[in-house]
């Protein structure tokens, strides 16, 4: 049946592997579990039943069980349909998502329009002025007329008019930045190609340059920050041997085999057993996972992630774990699967005598593992290893409350680190002991229990209408007749399978062996990547569907959560009003138990307040949030197709470190465009001014740079320069500056200094060459005085074209050297840094120089040039090289001089904004004390201190208004310094850790009491409304 034909009210069957096609309610089923990770972000399968959770969400998949459900929502009315609708219409739950140009594109459009207007104005002015000049000169000298010998006739006038018009149009061609789109396209194309090598598949090219100015990143946890693979990271064996690193885990192989356990079965059986052998035997056999092959052909374990983590931990120590599973000397007698009630699982083995175990007779061994505190409660003995290597066998300690208390303390320590703790224990029985127990009282107890269960079952009568009724009573005679023959034939397997047998074998008398801590560890390099983000001024937030404690622990471990940061749950976040949301956003670092809608609300609001937002997502329902963000990152490995289609960039390795590389390439794209702009504007200004001034000064209204020469300059300036400057690789120091605000000017002060400084320098050089290179009046005489001899005319013509060639050659060489200057857009002096890493720049620079030599020497009439001598070339080259030291001088000029004429009060974003607001909020003495604190350490204090200062100000107003009515303030009230206070919200869904060190706890509690009272009577809907219980938190 096609999913397009499903209607509301129909009954659908589901089984493992099915994807839910429509929303519905479960009406019957057996052991159904649904994987909703792609829809809601829940990493674990959700158990579904008709009582507690009967809701099936479209887009999720069935992992276990069979069942039926009734359809309640299809198409755009289903959960999956709403998501797809949001991607097509770009609207979700009232949040409008508009497709906007990137900040760089918007600024470039404005700049290109301004340059075009400027060039057109200059061209029109030049055309009008030259035309008037020509008319004036002719009218005052030889005049206009039809005489072809003495007067300027109509044909000559039209020829001159066309010549002036061509010069004016050439100015427009030079001024209009037609190479700007080419530079942007080349830079983006180069960056996207290289980013693929850094595991960033760019789907939307504009996202490259947008990522360069990202001010905040909202990142997932599972799979992005962590490896999405449960791993044993810490543990304690025999109460004394600890490990907490990969190296220590591998060293266990040489440490533990020498530790033998003897005398573990008192008064019945003596053995000499390797304690490490018992642990690996219990992990290998007391497990429900099985080995399989993935799509790449690698071996993986299928089943519980926790059990797989234990198996992989043991494989690091003992590689041939499969040999234990396949051993013929071990026979599995009974398995007690994991139960949510007992929080443990157990396996009973019959171990035959062999040379390895040095046993003289078979034994029965019970392996137990589960929640550490539960397993510890089943134990009355603890194996305690000596602290020194080879110091003897372990000591078997019975009923020692001190050791058990110590183990509980270690369990709590692991739990505080958000580790999932697993305890491993065992118990041995001799063959005689086991059979005596099996034939003893336990058999009678199981018989009685089964009989009672049968009696209870007969008391329930199912009526035709489905209502279950209980009979009043059953006579004892009837009870005694219930399956008496079956009770007499009770087998050993039936006895062992009963819960009473499990209570005896697995829930008491065990020996505690080891404690391990399991977690989803951070990906390698994540902590360093987040530190780089902080250094780059990018604020990183964790948005995850995991529980609050796990999210907080991982965020602290990787450096996202700092002192003063807010940890909030999604259920609280989505209920905040806009004023409350704006108040909490600056310090919100972790959003736990969040839905994809929470992620979208967060991204939309951050954009509204001026942030450039990047969001990561892997689920189907993350699509709207990925679309809402300025840059959406989807996961290439774990992400759904819907998420990939909605994203701008796909992380091929699902690693946060790749996002940092995207930031570097994004900034490199921005820098490349700005380098090109810096170079182009310099050429524009110099070429336009030189052409305009020399055309006015020339008797024939000809610019020193002809139309063909200007077209060659335009080719250098646009196409070739774009290719040379747009292929720069990002340098490591590119992350040492803060991101630019959306309102920041496209051309910085450093760029304006270089543009104006080099333009003025080039104009002066070229005009000096032009005006000082020879007399000017001979051009007038050459034009209008026919009495000049041919020898004088030829000499004057040679000097005339020689001067123009030198000016043209010098102008081009100045641009070539300035191209090297433009490799930097900051105030740093080293302009050759990384130049060897850009072969395109070297080849283009060399190619342009060679072509310029050919044009100069052999251009002839086409380029209006004549060949230059060696001395002329040396002069031109030396003058061109002066551009380099001139660039050094310009960079040494302080920016303060230019800042008077430029817009510098641009709103800051990201970490820079928080740092500035913190500095404004603190007293001068406190400002001086934090000047040497890194930005990312003071970030946590910024908005928090401002919020407390605001509360303090309102308290003063409240004191004045209220007076003696109700709440009294007197002179004895201590003077509270809010900068020494730290407040934490105690709401169950909102946690704020301490932000500052408490120096006066008593005064802090008094201040907290005042704030508590103020918040209770304050009728405004403020930030405090979301957390009614406020208290001071001592760290």
Q: Short description, anyone?
A:
By secondary structure, the protein is of the alpha+beta class.
Per-chain topology:
Blueprint: E1 11-14, E2 23-35, H1 37-40, E3 46-48, E4 55-56, E5 61-73, H2 79-89, E6 91-92, E7 95-96, H3 103-140, H4 154-175, H5 179-197, E8 200-202, H6 206-212, E9 216-219, E10 231-237, E11 241-243, H7 246-255, E12 260-262, E13 272-274, H8 275-285, E14 290-293, E15 299-302, H9 305-317, H10 321-325, E16 330-339, E17 344-351, E18 363-371, H11 372-377, E19 379-384, E20 395-398, H12 401-416, E21 420-430, H13 431-438, H14 441-458, E22 460-462, E23 468-470, H15 476-480, H16 484-488, H17 492-497, H18 499-506, E24 510-519, H19 526-535, E25 539-543, H20 548-558, E26 566-569, H21 570-573, H22 578-584, E27 588-592, H23 596-608, E28 613-617, H24 623-628, E29 631-635, H25 641-646, E30 649-651, H26 657-697, H27 707-725, H28 749-772, H29 777-784, H30 790-821, H31 839-858, H32 860-863, H33 870-881, H34 883-892, H35 896-899, H36 910-921, H37 924-929, H38 935-938, H39 942-962, E31 983-985, E32 990-991, H40 1001-1017, E33 1030-1032
Helix pairs in contact: 3-4, 3-26, 4-27, 5-26, 5-27, 6-26, 26-27, 26-28, 27-30, 27-31, 28-30, 28-34, 30-31, 30-33, 36-39
